[in-house]
Design goal:
Blueprint lengths: L1 H16 L1 E3 L3 E4 L4 E2 L5 H6 L8 H9 L3 H7 L2 H24 L10 H23 L1
Antiparallel strand pairs: 1-2, 2-3
Helix pairs in contact: 1-3, 1-5, 3-4, 3-5, 5-6
Length: 132
């Protein structure tokens, strides 16, 4: 639980700190340093992968720009919600463990969320790459 909590906090905090400039650039604002693009698939094949735009989507959501987030990668909205939702969930789980209470079990919900995320990533990629 600690790893998921700290990782999720790190992702949300970084999304709040970083900035998107233009359609492709992510910038560290204080030092005005542009981060390099990291998609090997795009650099080799020449088209975006299903995950392209997720970083810019997360940053846009953290800055309160849902339309920009949607334009970068619509599936990222669900992904960001899952990551951000880990913060209270893992905090509650850790509190319950400390109190000697059993952990909450979510049954099939994590499998459903993961499946939904995969389907949404692939669907938006197919639409953007082959239909639009």
């Amino acid at each position: 639980h600690w790893a998921m909590l700290l990782g999720s906090i790190g992702v949300v905090v970084l999304a709040a700190i970083l900035q998107v400039r233009g359609p492709e650039t992510v910038v560290v604002p204080v030092v005005n340093f542009a981060l390099p693009g990291t998609c090997t698939y795009k650099s080799v094949v020449g088209v975006e992968c299903p995950g392209c735009g997720l970083t810019r989507c997360f940053i846009s959501l953290a800055h309160g720009r849902p339309v920009a987030a949607w334009n970068f990668n619509p599936a990222g909205i669900l992904f960001f919600a899952i990551v951000a939702g880990q913060i209270p969930f893992r905090g509650i789980q850790l509190w319950r463990i400390r109190q000697g209470l059993p952990e909450y079990r979510l049954g099939r919900i994590p499998h459903f969320l993961l499946g939904s995320l995969i389907v949404s990533l692939l669907t938006q990629w197919i639409v953007r790459t082959f239909i639009a």
